[in-house]
Amino acid sequence: MKKLLFAMIVAGAILTSCSPKGGTNPLLEEWNTPFGIPPFEKIKIEHFMPAFVEAMNQHKAEIDAIVNNVEAPTFENTIVAYDNAGALLDKISPVFSHISGTDSNADVIALEKELSPLRSRHFNEISLNQGLFERVKVVYNMKDSLGLNDEQMRLLNEMYKGFVRSGADLPEDKKAELKKINEEISVLQLQFGQNLLAETGSYKLVIENESDLAGLSEALKTAAYNRGQKDSSTAGKWVFGLDNPSIMPFLQQAENRELRKEILDAYLNRCNNNNEFDNKEVIKKLIDLRLQRAKIMGFDNFAQYQLETRMAKNIDNVYNLLNQLWTPALASAKRELSDMSAIAKEDGLKGNLEAADWRFYFEKAMAKKFDLSDSQLRPYFKLENVRDGIFYVANQLFGITFTQLNNLPMPHAESTVYECKDADGSHLGILYMDMFARPGAKRGGAWCSGFRSQTYKNGERVAPLVLIVGNFTRPNGDEPALLSTDEVETYFHEFGHALASLLKNVNYYGVGGMTRDFVELPSQIMEHWAFEPQVLKEYAKHYQTGEVIPQELIDKIVNAGKYGQGFATTEYLAASLLDMDYHILNEIPANLDVNAFENKVLSERGLISQIPPRYRSTYFSHTFGGGYTAGYYSYIWAEVLDSDAYQAFVETGDIFNKEVANKLRKEILERAGQDEAMTLYVNFRGKEPGIEPLLKNRGLK
Predict the structure, then answer these.
(1) pLDDT tens-digit profile of 479-529?
(2) Residue closest to 484 by CA, chosen among 206, 246, 257
(3) Catalytic amino acids?
(4) Which of 32, 26, 41, 35 is nearest to 418 (CA)?
């Protein structure tokens, strides 16, 4: 009955702004909240279905009005009208996406499954609407006579290109085939992500004997004990999970080798256990459907289709970069392995090191070579201090400030919220942060999203509502959240994305985004400031004494800065190559074995057994959950850019050089997608980037 009712609503038989149980639906009301923030505390899961229905109906009506307009197509009545269409859908979709990513449960999962094909169908009908495309084409064909400015011309070109790449120029039978494929891909990508969330959240390594905790810090033991108290079956025991704040320090510290193997094996085999959450068949179907989509569009493979609109442009350029880095990275990793093997031999370990030994003996190697360990640094990386350090860097670069606000609607009880103001005191936007792991409810990793994008409406700037999400180490009893160096770097990274959103200054939604292999430049350049001595002295303060990090520790950080890059680069490149290798296939074997394919493409390149790819196929959500499909290479591609861009500061002798910072803001951060990515970069730097700064930063040269 529910699905029948939904079908009737979508068909337009029922239109309502009421919630299913009567009363009003906050998603369909005006948000008379400070800064237009969603009224999170009023929104319930049952509000989303009727809200999406109404939003899709409104969007369809707006598209119909464009198509049926009796006036000749113009830039305003077609291009701008289309760019502004779907405002209600754009308003409510981020709220639901946030809940599904950070506070999922059975009801959310069920609604996702029901909405996914319907939303896919809705957008397919728009992107393949022949009447709409014909009007866009008319404007496109007379673009040179319209007197458009550069941003308007970019919007028109990208919009036309988007319709063509979506299949609007295809014959009707191919459009029908493409719609079906798109819907299936949407469902499968959702299934992949839901399987991964379930498999990651359900695993528990339960330790009953305290002797098995040898080597673990008191903070980690306390966190595991508290985790065990949440379930009567594990009360009084220590529980570790597959979320990073739990498994990574366990692998670094635990002396019990068998337990390290056990938890790492569970981590590496997520969704690869031949159960209801297994993703191998999902992957096979996905890569086959993506290939079918590419061939319908006239491409040999899906990677070719994806890369057409990115900075890389073609497959050869991606592999040239990855292969150029693979050899020195693998050689560096083997040197690190040799260091660790010698230490392991001294410890009495017989045989070769295995994957579960790497992080454990890397910590020992760091201590031996540099007298440095994670436990020495964490006390100086209190989360709030790191946040203040990030705000300090932003202020020094751009003059902007962040002020924590209270009594505002909050997307989650653990969130914090800040107002960002420009140097002249004008409002730039709102920044939310939700930084702690919630296994089983919040998906893994860290990301930056938001609830509203920057644009202009009636000549007035619409300020963005931005969100940073993390899965960081939680406070533990009286001890605050103390971050690892990886978490510190991730914090700076995601804040770089937030800065790009806050400083963006475009007039149209259609030019508000960067290409996938350019979008990581703003985030990755921020990482360069994280461990600069000048910056560390501002924020790295001991959580108990307030003592600024001593110069001795700073010197150790600097000296050890490139150690470990062999492992980090190799595991990253392995995943990037795996992603590309799946999507350059011109034919998909009927009997494709996902594990065998993965093993073959990596073993043939000489990947050592001690280093698994950062993401194995069955939990590689960047590519199989969508978003970075044939695009995981983007991080290293952008690192060529960010390493070169940071040199623009270093060359002046001032890492906060105001002239360079202003140019970075004006030519890249504010402009987003207003021009080709390389054009924007050259406008900033005065030249195309070289690979030398990246090799130097990673110690690969």
Answers:
(1) 999 999 999 999 999 999 999 999 999 999 999 999 999 999 999 999 999
(2) 246
(3) 494
(4) 35
**DSSP three-state, residue 649:** helix
Q: Which domain holds residue 228?
A: 203-268
Q: CA 391 to CA 401: how far, in whole Å?
A: 7
- Are 12 and 160 part of one and the same domain? yes
Establish if 190 belongs to a structural domain: no
Q: Is residue 656 part of a domain?
A: yes
For residues 210 and 221, give the distance between their C-alpha atoms in angstroms, rounded to a whole number: 9
Q: What is the CATH number of the domain that holds 135?
A: 1.10.1370.40
Note whether 383 and 521 are same-domain residues.
Answer: yes
Q: What is the model's pLDDT at position 14?
A: 30
Here the tokens at position 446 are: 């860290």
Within 629-676, residue ranges assigned H as helices are 634-650, 658-664
Cβ proximity of 262 and 354 under 8 Å: no
- Residue 17 clears pLDDT 70, i.e. is over it: no
Alpha carbons 691 and 273: distance in angstroms, whole number: 41
Coil vs helix vs strand at 495 = helix
Question: 132 vs 90, 156, 594, CA distance in Å?
Answer: 20, 14, 41
C-alpha dihedral sign at 647, 651, 654, 659: negative
3-state secondary structure of 162: helix
Single-letter amino acid, residue 255: E
Distance CA 502, CA 428 (A): 6
Q: Are 396 and 374 in contact (CB under 8 A)?
A: no
What whole-number distance in Å separates Cα of residue 100 and Cα of residue 106?
10
Domain membership of residue 337 (yes or no) is yes
- Whether residues 209 and 247 share a domain: the answer is yes
Task: Classify the C-alpha dihedral 422-466-619-198 as positive or negative.
Answer: positive
Name the residue with tokens 């406008």.
683
Q: Are both 386 and 532 inside the same structural domain?
A: yes
Percent of the chain with pLDDT over 70: 97
Identify the DSSP state of 45.
G
Does the pLDDT value for residue 236 go beyond 50? Answer: yes
In a domain, 307, yes or no: yes
Taking Cα atoms as reference points, which of 108, 89, 120, 90 lies closest to residue 442? 108
Are residues 511 and 431 part of one domain?
yes
Identify whether the C-beta of residue 296 lies closer than 8 Å to the C-beta of residue 185. Answer: no
Q: Count how many domains the chain has.
A: 4
Question: What would the pLDDT profile of 279-318 be if each residue is shown by its tens digit?
Answer: 999 999 999 999 999 999 999 999 999 999 999 999 999 9
Round to whole Å and give the CA distance between 166 and 160: 10
Determine how β-strand 465-472 pairs with β-strand 427-436.
parallel
Residues in the chain: 701
Residue 52: phi and psi, rounded to 5, are -65, -40
H or E element in which residue 461 lies: strand 460-462
**Residues 163 and 231 grouped into a single domain:** no
Residue 478 burial (CB < 10 Å; 0-12/13-18/19+)? exposed
Q: How many whole angstroms separate alpha carbon 290 and alpha carbon 356?
A: 35
Convert 548-573 to b/e letters by CB count within 10 Å (16 or more is b).
Answer: ebeeebbebbeebeebbbbbbbbbbb
Residue 421 DSSP code: E
